[in-house]
């Protein structure tokens, strides 16, 4: 199950670890991504904290934590090739993984239908 934030991040939970990235809508709005800054592994961040930056030829945008948790992994392939955020934002272009501190926060995020209406 994938959930979405109002800041255009997606989160997919597997047990107590969740993978986070930017949505198709976000990458469409940004255009060609040229740089990605990701959080440090081991960092503990709260929901809505800035967790990274994505820069494109048109703009720079912050990436926010969709939930409270500890960063367990970053996508080094994305750092090396930021265009993955454009070519496969919901797959190979993931940003980081987080160990959930409050799994119930995921339930409050938007499902695909709600996000489609929000981003529409």
What features would you describe in this structure?
β1 and β2 form a beta hairpin. By secondary structure, the chain is α+β, with helices and mostly antiparallel strands. The strands form two sheets. A six-stranded antiparallel beta sheet has the order 1-2-3-9-8-5. The chain has helices at residues 24-30, 76-80, 84-87, 104-107, 112-119, and strands at residues 2-4, 9-14, 17-22, 33-37, 44-45, 50-56, 60-64, 69-74, 96-100. The radius of gyration is 13 Å and the shape is globular. The protein starts with a strand and ends with a helix. The protein contains five helices and nine strands.
End-to-end separation: 20 Å
Q: Provide the residue-averaged pLDDT.
A: 97
Low-confidence stretches are none
The helicity comes to 10-25%
Category by helix and strand content: alpha+beta
**Quaternary structure state of the chains depicted:** single chain
Name a few traits of the molecule.
120 residues; alpha+beta; six-stranded antiparallel beta sheet; three-stranded antiparallel beta sheet; 5 helices
